[in-house]
Write a structure and sequence with these properties.
Two copies of one chain form a homodimer.
Chain A lengths: L10 H11 L17 H16 L3 E4 L5 E5 L9 E5 L13 H16 L8 E5 L13 H6 L5 H6 L8 H7 L15 E7 L4 H4 L4 E7 L1 E10 L3 E2 L11 H17 L5 E10 L5 E2 L2 E10 L2 H22 L2 E10 L2 E2 L2 H13 L4 E6 L13 E7 L15 H19 L2
Parallel strand pairs in A: 3-4, 3-5, 5-15, 6-14
Antiparallel strand pairs in A: 1-2, 2-4, 6-13, 6-15, 7-11, 7-12, 8-10, 9-11
Helix pairs in contact in A: 1-3, 3-11, 8-9, 10-11
Protein name (chains A, B): N-carbamoyl-L-amino-acid hydrolase
Family (chains A, B): Belongs to the peptidase M20 family.
EC number (chains A, B): 3.5.1.87
Amino acid sequence: MPNKLSKRINHERFNRYVKRSSEVGRTDNNGLHRLALSQADKEIRDQLKVWFEQAGLTTTVDDFGNMYGRREGKNPHLKPIVIGSHLDTQPYGGRFDGVLGVLAGLEVVESLNDDHIQTERPIVIVNFTNEEGARFPQPMLGSGAITEHFNKSFVYEIQDEKGITFEQALQEIGYVGKEEYRLKEAEYYLELHIEQGPMLERNSKQIGVVGGIQGMDWLDVNVIGEKNHAGPTAMEDRKDALASSARMISTLYEITNSYSGLKTTVGKLHVHPNVANVVPGNVEWVLDVRHEDDTLRMTALDEMRHALKQQAALDGTSVTVNELWASPAVLFDEDVLGAIEKSTDNLGLTRMKLYSGAGHDSKYMPYFGKTGMIFIPSVQGVSHREDELSHDHDLHNGVEVLLHTVMQLDAN
Amino acid sequence: MPNKLSKRINHERFNRYVKRSSEVGRTDNNGLHRLALSQADKEIRDQLKVWFEQAGLTTTVDDFGNMYGRREGKNPHLKPIVIGSHLDTQPYGGRFDGVLGVLAGLEVVESLNDDHIQTERPIVIVNFTNEEGARFPQPMLGSGAITEHFNKSFVYEIQDEKGITFEQALQEIGYVGKEEYRLKEAEYYLELHIEQGPMLERNSKQIGVVGGIQGMDWLDVNVIGEKNHAGPTAMEDRKDALASSARMISTLYEITNSYSGLKTTVGKLHVHPNVANVVPGNVEWVLDVRHEDDTLRMTALDEMRHALKQQAALDGTSVTVNELWASPAVLFDEDVLGAIEKSTDNLGLTRMKLYSGAGHDSKYMPYFGKTGMIFIPSVQGVSHREDELSHDHDLHNGVEVLLHTVMQLDAN
C-alpha cells in the first residue's frame, strides 16, 4: 500500500503543531509544565479540539476526560485503528514525551486528507488523561480506566497534592464528557514516542520497533541492625545496617549481571538516623528489577531474595522484603511489529528492536486490540526534563513510519 | 595513702546531688534537656554555686562561663589537682554524661572534709561550658577556649540555631566571669565519666582505665556517576553512583578488618536524586575512621583513599575525598593511669583499659597537666539518650576510685 501515497507527510504543518504545543505551558528553559487537568492542559485540549475540527474529525470526550477525534472509514462497522498518547507532561518536563504521539496522529490524518485517502477502518486519535501520574499519582490513568484497570470511583477520588480530586479538576476545566463516549474497542493501537533512553542514539538507529514493555517489580527492602555510637563500639560488636546494605547491593548487581538483559536499580535509599558518628540502625531502600521476560525476572528475584537473607545472616542484621508493586511484561503484537518493520524498511530507515523500560498508555491497550509502539531517538536519552530533545528529522521519520504503518495495517 | 581514709564516700549525699541535678531540665522520660547557657543551665549553675559554698570552696567564673570551685591545699603554690566535666547535656540527653564528673568532684571534696584531710595540692572542681556542642556547634568549647584552641572572638561569636551568640547567651544568664579567673595550670586533671559504650558491661568490668581518646578523621566522599532512567538504560551503559558507593563501602570495611582496633563508620549517606526509578547520579557520604594510634590510622586512610579511586575507575564513576575534620589521638598520662589502676585494685574492683571513642574535656587538658579519665559502665552502652543509665553501685565505685586516685596523686 505505501506506494499509493503520492507524497510524504507535510513537515511544515507538523512543525507548526509542535511549535504551538510547545507554547502552552512553556517553561523559561523551553520545556513544558503542563500538568494533567491544569489550565495549561485545558488550553492545549481546546487547541486540540480546533485541530480535530480542522482535520475533519468528530470530537468526543469521555467521562475520564480522554479526548477522541474520529475519522470515518469506508467501513464504519470495522473496529478502528487507534493512534494515541497524551498531552499532559511531567513537572518541568519536555516537549515531546506523549505530545509527539498525539500530534503525529493529527499529521497522519491530515496527510491522508491531502491525498484524499479514505481508509477501510475508522481512525481514532486519542489524547489520554493523566498519563504521567505527576499530578494525580496514578500513571496511565485515562487508558487504565477505559480498559477497566481502575474503576470510576477510584479515578474520581484520586487527589493531587493540594487535595483537589480528579473529578473536581475535570469539572473545573470543563472536560467531564460522557461514559458512552469511552473507547470500547480497537483493531489496532499505535503509539509513537520518543525513546527516553540512549539505545537508538548509541546504536545509530533511526527507528525503534518496541517489542513490549518490560515487566517490573518494586521491592521495599528494610535492613535492620543496631544503632550504636561510632566511637566506642568495636567493629565485631556492630550490626551495621548500612554496611550490610552495601554488601547486599553489591551482590544484587553481581546477580543482575548473570542474567542477560536484566536491569536492577537501587535509586532510593534512606539511612536512619543518618548521622556521621552513629552506626546506622536501619536502612531502607527500593529495589527496581526489570525484564521483558517475566519468568526470567521471577527466577532472578528469587535468587535476589535468597541472597539478601544470606547476607543478613552473615552480618547479624535482619532484612524484610515487601513487594511495593509488580507489573508483568507486556509483549506487543507480532503483526503490528511486522508492519512497523516493513514500513521502516520501505522508507529506507534503519531500525532496531528494543523494549520500553517505562510505562505508556500502550501498556493497557492490548486489552482492546493489537498494539505496537514506535520509538524515535531522544538526544542523549534525556527525558522528563526541560531539555528533552528530538531532532526534526527523527520526528519526521517517526511520523512517516506511523503513517505507513497505518496504511499497511488498514490493508490487512 | 588510701589507708588514711577512715571511711568511704557518702552514698546518700552523692545520691542527693544526682537527684537534684536530675530535676533541673528534666524531660518527661526522666532524661535531661539542659542545653548550654539555657535557663535550665543557669539553674544548675546557681545550684552548683550553693554546693561549692556548702563544701567550703571558693567559687570563680571565667569569661567563658567555666565555673571553678577551689579547695586550698597545704601548699597553695603547688599546681592544683583539677577534677572536672560539664553540666550541660545533649537535647533530650541523659542524666550522667558529664554531670557525673562534676558531682563526683563535689563528693570527693566533701569526703575529704568529712575526714578533715587537707591535701598538699589545691583541688579545683570545674564545670566546663558547652562541652556537648549541642547548642553552640563546637564541642568542648569551654575547655578548648582556656587551653587556647579557640580564641575569644571565635567563641563569643558562635551562634545557636536561633542566631543567639554565645556571648549574648552568657550575658543573659549572668555568667560572664573574668578572664583572670581562667584556669591556667594543673598538675593533674581527672575526669570520671560514663562509658557511653558497651565494652565494660560486655567484659563484666567495673572500672575503665581510659588510655586516651582515639584519633579521628572525617572524610566527605562524593561519588559522581550519571543520572539515568532505570527503565531504558542498559546495565553496561550505567555509571551508577550508588552501586559504586556500595562496592566502595564494602571494600572499606574489608580494609578496616585488616587493622586491629580500627573503627570505620559510614553513618551518613545521601543519594541524589533519590528516586526509585532513577539511576543515582551522585552519592555523598561521610567516612568516620578512628584509632588511638595516629600512624596506623594514617596508613589505613591512605589505603582507603587508594581503594576508593580504584573502585571508581572500575565503575566509570569519579570520586572526590575531602577532609572535613581531623583530630589526632590523645594519650593520657602513664602516672595518672597507674594511680587509677592502683586505686581500683586497692578497692578490689575489676578493671580494663580502653580508649574513648568520643571527645571529652579531657582531650584538651593535657595542655595544662597530666590527665586521666575513669569510665564506669553505662547500661547497654546507651548515651545521648533520655534512657542513659548507670547503676548506683557503679556510680559509687567510680567516685570512690576518683577519691582514691586524688589521694594517690597528691602523695606523689
